[in-house]
Write a structure and sequence with these properties.
The protein is α+β, with helices and mostly antiparallel strands. It has helices spanning about 5-30, 40-55, 60-80, 125-135; strands spanning about 85-90, 100-105, 110-115, 145. The longest helix is centred in the first third of the chain and has 24 residues, at about 5-30.
């Protein structure tokens, strides 16, 4: 059974939240012309931290996932090769009700889809779903595939 959250944990969580938002909010504001969803992502993260405070340690996974997505978005946008590209957060995939974490849209129309995984993904994050997406045409034709282990 997880240890309950106490006042010291709550103080740490608020400090962690403030530090994360303080670092990434100005960066995402600077990227705003290329990344319109920065505040949405930061709000999701802040809500996840508040959920941990309200519901307990067992709800920390959503905070980790949002933090990972923030870091990935920042890394993509900081890469000089993406200076002319736009980054979309959780756009819908065609022919499905699913979304993907990010789509990087290059000036020439090429798309790079990015799905962020946690250290311990849920069983729903499976390779067979990726293969199904290919079979059923969830992904646009101009997608660039970069698979890293």
């Amino acid at each position: 059974m997880p240890r309950p959250i106490d006042a010291a944990d709550i103080a740490w969580l608020h400090e962690y939240q403030a530090s994360t938002l303080g670092h990434f909010r100005p960066r995402f504001e600077a990227y705003a012309p290329r990344f319109a969803h920065g505040e949405t992502l930061l709000t999701r993260y802040a809500a996840a931290i508040e959920e941990v405070i309200a519901q307990g340690r067992g709800h920390f996974r959503a905070a980790d996932e949002a933090h990972n997505e923030i870091c990935v978005a920042d890394a993509i946008l900081a890469d000089p090769s993406t200076i002319d590209a736009t980054l979309l957060y959780e756009p819908p995939l065609p022919n499905t009700d699913k979304t993907i974490d990010f789509v990087l849209r290059e000036r020439d129309g090429r798309l790079t889809l990015v799905d962020v995984k946690t250290i311990k993904p849920q069983p729903r994050d499976r390779w067979d779903q990726y293969e199904r997406a290919l079979r059923e045409g969830w992904l646009p034709k101009n997608v660039q595939f970069i698979l890293e282990q």
